[in-house]
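Loading example: each entry is read as three labelled lines plus one structure line.
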Amino acid sequence: MQEPLLELKGVKTHFPLERGMLFGRGAATVKAVDGVSLSIAQGEVLGLVGESGCGKSTLARTILRLVPPTEGTVILAGRNLAELAPEELRAARADFQMVFQDPYASLNPRMTVYDTIAEAIQAHRAVSRAELATEVSALLNRVGLAARFSRKYPHEFSGGQRQRIAVARALAVRPQLIVADEPVSALDVSIQAQIINLLAGLTREMGLTMIFISHDLAVVKHISDRIAVMYLGKIVELGPAAEVLERPLHPYTKALASAMPLPDPERERTRRRILLAGDPPSPVNPPAGCPFHPRCAYAIPECSRDQPRLEAFRTGHEAACLRLEQVNAD
Amino acid sequence: MALLEVDDLRTSFHTRNGVVRAVDGVSFCIDRGETLGIVGESGSGKSVTCLSLLGLVPQPPGRIEGAGAVLEGIDLLRCPQEVLRGIRGRRVAMIFQDPMTSLNPYMTIEEQLMEPLLIHEKIGRAAAARMALQALQEVGVPEAERRIRSYPHQFSGGMRQRVMIAMALIGKPDLLIADEPTTALDVTVQAQILDLIAQQQRQRGVAVIFISHDLSVVAGFCDRVMVMYAGRVVETANTRAIFREPKHPYTRALQRSRPAMQAKGAELYVIPGLPPDLSRPVPGCAFAPRCEFAVADCGRTEMRLQDVGASQASACLRVQRGELTLQ
Amino acid sequence: MPVTASASPALAADAVEPGRSLWQDAWARLCRNRMAVIGGVVLIVLTALSLFGPLFLAYSYEEQNLALGAAPPSAAHLLGTDKLGRDQLARLLFGGRVSLLVGLAATSVSLTIGVLWGSIAGYAGGRLDAVMMRIVDILYALPFTIFVILLMTVFGRNFILLFVAIGAVEWLTMARIVRGQVLALKRQEFIEAAVALGLRKRRIVLRHVVPNVLGPVMVYTTLTIPAVMLLEAFLSFLGLGVQPPMSSWGLLIKEGAEQMEEAPWLLIYPAAVFAATLFSLNFLGDGLRDALDVRASKD
């Protein structure tokens, strides 16, 4: 059994909300990520889903060390990132990269595409001028863009093309892990397919490991091997992609899956939706015990006291619920 | 008689870079109590169509023309401004995508709910306040009495959208236009809002035009669907038919490019090329350059919507001629 | 107009299409703004006159003609003479050199210090930011006039010192503006991406931060130059700036104001030219702001 590429143990990322020196100490904390443990194997695509406030974006940034964790360890390719000196960390960044949500904001508007990618290539490697040109062309072609557009500026491209450029930039440093944070959410429906195909293809061809974050369940189901469902900073369910969404274990996942619009008018009209009351909560001072219990139809008094741990119900499929058996009695 | 009959609506924007034909000859009708979905991507003209009906497009640089948009006898494109103002909010209401910017941040929820009542009906403030509270409760805002005096920023996205719906329905309109009302919301909240709109629609018998870029969202909610591309209507059909047998290559391409409609892991169909530049006149079918079934005639013959089956109409030349059956 | 993506990308080593940068877009927009163009043209004309004009004149700015005294405009002296018989036209043009030079030089100094200071403070954040901005706050509190008088008294009346004094005051506002821009910029994802790539901080600041704050900086610069010129005029008015026989527009206005009743031409011409320059700079600045304000076009 190969070593996992990425291992997270008890990762917590909390942000203090300062209330100023004059008005009281012990102010509120935003517990964006509140105890996440996870392993990802090499070559795997893990989908990360959840709604606003669940912490998936913060988790992504914590893994990439754009934000330091408050607690817990992040081990990438056997190295504990917290133990690295600043220079070592900077060099280690070649191993993990991110593709951002907004294709308009993730590229420097004052740099040509060539410069953007060349800068990435040279960030960690010394490359000669001739080799540089060849490599930039190769990367652009790999993401489906003609090399003759390399001297153009980001605003001269469409959203889908910009996203391709962002992917090319991420690939330029030759990473092992790519975290895609809502990479298609800002794109038109028919363009999303291109980027999804591109990312899926790259992971297959290059053996890349990927964490795919999205609120669009259909997209995540399509591209991921496994799915982790997050709620209020914790993972509430983890298992094979299709299974998590077709036969969910956790009450929240059940509601989430039932809220997914189906492209079948018959099923849409006849199925019973599980409607949750209220809105996704904010991670400022989350409830004690199970984070979901205030909105859960199956909650019992213990749920407000004890924190459920992820436990396997079927092989490879775990959920964090004190009443897993009863919830899945049917 | 249909509630609203739109005939050959054309909206163009006169910009420095040319005339952008955002809506290029759109015709449709909707009956009382019916739900119509308008599906299209950005640039398809779906939002501008409905904004044009209500005169919400600034003219200039916009220009709205057309044979007519008749709401039970009144032509919205030609009636005087006071008449149009009387219709807006009262007979035809609209809710928008972003509840953050659609609500006035300086007015309380109560004031905003009362506003349409005070303007359109001749009732006193006390009566309006009572109706406002009732409206808020009907859309499922918990602890309505306590929260009605709050400001929009104190509400979450889903709650704000409920307030928008309450505001839209408080004047008891005949037609509700919902422009991507759930796109900016979380999935579970989206389900709640869709459920709410469906419920209100059933209870009040109000007709709904539901604009979306997502076919799936429209599937469960609308009786009929109209698909738009480059400012034109390419297909209309009842919902079931559109999913079973799309009668236009674009509709089919949309379905094949969505992961929800494909097998897991399968390569998604990618529509080649880019949407056309609307400032240049597009000869023939606007979709032809990207269509896998296009033939020479497609770029020459003018596109026209034609019935091709029981309550199904398509603008595809080859489908009309019977040359093409899409699977 | 987005480029068309090719379905089957070809490795075209030749025919790399040129791009059109945001600066080029902004330049095109600026050229369409009539007032800004007029302002620009006036500035260029005045600068050219000041730079090259004195070469063609019969008189120099210091040549005195005591017999003539303060004479109104005539064929020999197009703008008249001052009480020492010095040709006003020559003094005006030469004064233009001084005023414009002070304006440009002092602004350049304040620009360089301000942009670097503000970028570093804004990007570094935390304690360094706090310390750097507190220094700015403290310096802001110093009354400018007293500071300059102090400098002049200690180091004597020095032309170079004039630049330094003015530049030393103007950079403060520039630093604040730049810091504000940098703070907003930090949240943009391409900055996050640069960090994620593992680029060195220095490179991020110089290559990613600074070029993107240049827009507002340019606008503010064109609005700083008039302020600097006014400061110089003020100092000269107080007798602390440029000393005769050298002239600057400020000095000319001061002298003209003193003899306003007897020799109004001594005030009118310098004042008019100075005002024209300030107007032009302001129009240009406004035009720049409008041209640069439009965000990168989204499709």
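Chain A touches chain C through 50 residues (CB under 8 Å).
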